[in-house]
Amino acid sequence: MFEYKLEEVGMESLRLVQEIIQALCEDKITITFFEALQKVNTVHLKYNEGPTTSMIIDAARKRNIPVNTGPAGFTILGHGKIRKRSVQRFPN
User: Fold this and answer.
1) Which residues on adjacent β-strands are paired with residue 69?
2) CA 75, 5, 9: angle at the middle one, nearest 5?
3) How many Cα atoms occupy the beta-carbon half-sphere of 76 within 13 Å?
4) CA 12 to CA 80: how far, in whole Å?
5) 63-70: long-range contacts (C-beta < 8 A, 24 or more apart)?
6) 32 touches 23 (CB < 8 A)
7) What span, in angstroms and rounded, lies between the C-alpha atoms of 20 and 7?
8) b/e sequence 34-43, b meaning 16+ C-beta within 10 Å
9) Which partner for 76 in 21, 24, 66, 70 could form a disulfide, CB atoms 3.0-4.6 Å apart?
10) Which phi and psi angles does 4 have, rounded to 5°?
């Protein structure tokens, strides 16, 4: 069992751990720890919010404003008639 904030990063980590364990069982090293770490970092950078968006999300959470991810990478602040969809994440 493990914890993650971004599903994509968690799934990539799980896939790489499985690959490393399989390679160790077969006594074949197919990927180094640092290569695996670099792949996880690449996925993290692709799907994580930028610094400005992170600051906005943190400030909203401190004020108990609901934060959700909507379609096309939009971050939705609030809900109902007072929600704002002004923060956008650009996955590549």
Assistant:
1) 75
2) 100
3) 11
4) 34
5) none
6) no
7) 20
8) eebeebbeeb
9) 70
10) -145, 160
Residue 16 confidence (pLDDT)? 92
Task: State how far Cα 14 lies from the chain centre.
Answer: 13
How distant, in Å, are the alpha carbons of 4, 24, 86, 88 from that of 11?
9, 20, 28, 23
Residue by residue, pLDDT tens for the chain (92 residues) are 888 888 888 999 999 999 888 888 988 888 888 998 999 989 888 887 788 888 988 999 999 988 887 766 678 888 777 665 555 555 55
Report DSSP letters for 27-69, one per residue. T---S-HHHHHHHHHHHHHHHS--HHHHHHHHHHHHTT--EEE
pTM assigned to the model: 0.58
Alpha carbon dihedral 63, 67, 73, 79, in 10-degree steps, equals -110
Alpha-carbon distance 56 to 54, whole Å?
A: 5
Tokens of 44: 């993290």
